């Protein structure tokens, strides 16, 4: 990426040699991204990230299939990016159906058998961004296709953490984002199955074969390609290593509080994610107490004016509000180590006492 910032300034659409060097770099990245997910390079459309990819897939797919119907269905636990895309469609008069999940956070399969016949696109993510819960996408795609709908899969959290086989998943639209797999922010891809209808959101120029107008972000695309190649090479080792480390992490969390509730514990999950509630320790308070002790975690709950709103994902799973406002997400990555988990173990009891000293409850 650094070399391209210094030495690859030409527009990849230019016919001169410098332009063609930039074009070659983009096409190499396209091969690398395609290889990560088992797709064909011409099925890869570079976009600015997960949010744009989700909008292009869901909105662009629904627009392209309007003759069949003006209805889409999304799972209740989708990322805000997918909810946002559905909102765009709703504002245009489309109907948006929501598919429920069970207590483990997995989509209720029978809901896919009951899809309205004018449903054109179904959105089901591969891995949830809060809980890491993996959805049965291949089975869902089969049911969606049976009902005449296409399947959009937001694989932003899953890419680089578990193996993805685009063909085996059966998705028609699949979205990944660079910054979730060790690459740069502001670069992502929509994988569009050959022949799948799509109406572009950005028009006026013929970039990405007319599917996404706009001069390409060459350094970002190069970074995404390199990240995809590294992720593919490391997956076989990184997966088991992270799974073992997560098991250590869960032991540490449980040792600090036997009442700990791990959300989605009984479902298949990403190897690197634990979403758990310490009853009575509000997530924002514990997050800050841990941050002060050198541990960075995230809260699924949104904080506004001192009050905490339970996460819609946990709410959809039926988690009680008083437990949902205590949920924290602990994520491990390729740089995480056993020593870091041990460091958490040393500070967690004190952080918990500090957090519980501040509050109990939802506000
Ligand atoms: N989808 C999921 C599941 C995500 O976790 C994220 C980001 O966190 C996005 C979409 C949005 O991706 P981006 O930040 O690249 O727009």
Structure description:
Helices cover 43% and strands 15% of the residues. The chain has helices at 2-7, 17-37, 50-64, 80-91, 109-113, 137-146, 166-169, 207-210, 218-256, 283-291, 312-316, 321-324, 338-358, and strands at residues 44-47, 71-75, 95-99, 119-123, 150-154, 173-177, 188-192, 261-262, 273-277, 298-299, 302-304, 307-309, 327-331. The protein is globular.
Main-sheet strand order equals 1-7-6-5-4-2-3
Number of strands: 13
What is the helix fraction of residues, given as a range? 40-55%
**Model regions low in confidence, pLDDT < 50 over at least 5 residues:** none
What is the CATH superfamily of the largest domain?
Type I PLP-dependent aspartate aminotransferase-like (Major domain)
| Alpha-carbon Rg, integer | 21 Å
Average of per-residue pLDDT values = 95
Predict the CATH topology of the largest domain.
Aspartate Aminotransferase, domain 2
Overall, the morphology is: globular
Q: Supply the number of structural domains.
A: 2
Distance between termini? Answer: 45 Å
Written as H for each helix and E for each strand, in order along the chain, the element string is HHEHEHEHEHEHEEHHEEHEEEHHEH
Structure classification: alpha/beta
CATH C-level name of the largest domain: Alpha Beta
Beta content comes to: 5-15%
CATH architecture label of the largest domain: 3-Layer(aba) Sandwich
**Cofactors and ligands:** pyridoxal-5'-phosphate
